[in-house]
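Long-time lurker. I teach an intro course on protein structure, and each term I like to show students one example going from raw sequence to a predicted 3D structure in token notation. This year I'd like something fresh instead of my usual example. Would anyone be willing to generate the tokens for the chain below so I can use it in lecture? Attribution to the forum is fine with me.
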Amino acid sequence: MEKENFSVLDLEKHQTKDIKDSHINGELTIVWREWDNLIKNPEMIYVNLVNPKEIKGPHIHKNRTSYFYCISGKMVIVVKDESGKYHEIQIDSSQSKLICIPNGMAAAIINPSEIISKILVMGDVAWKPNDNEMSNSTFDDYDWSKWK
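-- Reply from a regular --
Happy to contribute to a lecture. Here you go:
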């Protein structure tokens, strides 16, 4: 699914089976394989924890494209496109979706739930201390109160 410059990608899921009697014992979701061409060679992979009812951002990565996958809990990514329109992408850990926010696009992560959200983040450029790769942004005309 493509929207503006950011994207929401459906990820591949597979059921896993017990080795003794082949009953289904869970599932796995493919987040990245080098040959899928969904993510161009991630240089950094980390888990971002967002406390309940908290907002991280908004900010802009000048060089890095970021990919977000909700491991546990819920997340809302608010993206401001080039025309100034806001897009709210709501995902929870039951969905196999990968959100791609390209460099230069302002975005914020919100945890609308009552538990800590865990978000797997991959970037095509690794973060380095004091590299000034990120700049804070403001969504002055956005209604943040709906997430409190």
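Some talking points for your students: The radius of gyration is 16 Å. The chain has a mean pLDDT of 91.
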